Amino acid sequence: MRNQRQAIVIAGPTGSGETTFTNELILAYPQFARLVSATTRPPREGERGGEDYYFFSQEGFFEEVQKGNIPEYTHVKNRNAWYGSYKPDLDNKLSSGKIVIVNTDLHGAKHYKENYNAVTIFIKPKGLEVLESRLRRRNPDMSEHELEKRLEQAAREIAEAEDQYDYTVFNTDGEFSDTMEDVVEILKREGYDV
C-alpha cells in the first residue's frame, strides 16, 4: 500500500540546524528529497539555481505566483527578499515517489499540513546565545547589525512557533545524533516510511 505521508515540514529559526537535519535525513534515507524553494534574493557564491534555490527577479517571482507555481510565500524583511514553495519542484519529487522535506516558516507549515497532510517539526535551539555562536561560526564576516537583525527574527520565529507545530525538538550542540534519533522516531510514529 502506498504511504499517505509524502511531505514533512522541518522548520526552525536561522542557525537552528533544520538544513543540517534535512541533509542528514536524505543521506540516511534515500526515499527523502528536499524541496528546492524559490527566492528573489541573489545567489550567494557557490549557489546553483535549481539545486540551492530557484532564483527569480521580483517580477519573475510574482509571475510564478500568478501561474500557481508558488502557492505559498513570505517576505523576509531583514533580507528584503521573497521566499516560497516552488510547486513544479514539489510535484516532480512527489510523482517520482519521494517523501519531500520542506524547510519553511509557520505560514508554509500550515499550508503543507492542510494540503499535504504533513507532520510539522520545529527545531528549537536551547537559547538565543546558542544561535548567536552558531551564526558567528558559520559566517565570521557577518556585521553586528546583521547578526542583531537575525537574532531578533529568530526570537520572533521561536515565540510565534509556540504550540503551532506538531512537534518541537531541541537541537543542542554536541547532541546532534540524539536529536536526529528523536526526529526519526517521530517520523516512524507518524507513519512515514523510515
Write up this protein.
The protein is an alpha/beta fold and 194 residues long. The chain has one domain (7-188): Rossmann fold (3-Layer(aba) Sandwich). 43% of the residues lie in helices and 19% in strands. The protein has 7 helices and 9 strands; from the N terminus they run βαβββαββαβαβααβα. Strands 2-7-1-8-9 form a 5-stranded parallel β-sheet, with helices on both faces. A 4-stranded mixed β-sheet has the order 4-3-6-5, with no helix packed on it. Helix 5 crosses helix 6. The two termini are 15 Å apart. The mean pLDDT is 89.
CATH-level-2 architecture: 3-Layer(aba) Sandwich
Number of domains: 1
Number of helices, counting only DSSP H or I runs of 4 residues or more: 7
Question: Which stretches are poorly predicted, pLDDT < 50 over at least 5 residues?
Answer: none
Q: Proportion of β residues?
A: 15-25%
CATH class descriptor name: Alpha Beta
Distance between the termini: 15 Å
Derived from helix and strand composition plus strand pairing, the structural class reads: alpha/beta
How many strands in all?
Answer: 9
Element order: H for helix, E for strand: EHEEEHEEHEHEHHEH
Strand order of the largest sheet: 2-7-1-8-9
> How confident overall, as mean pLDDT?
89
3D shape = globular
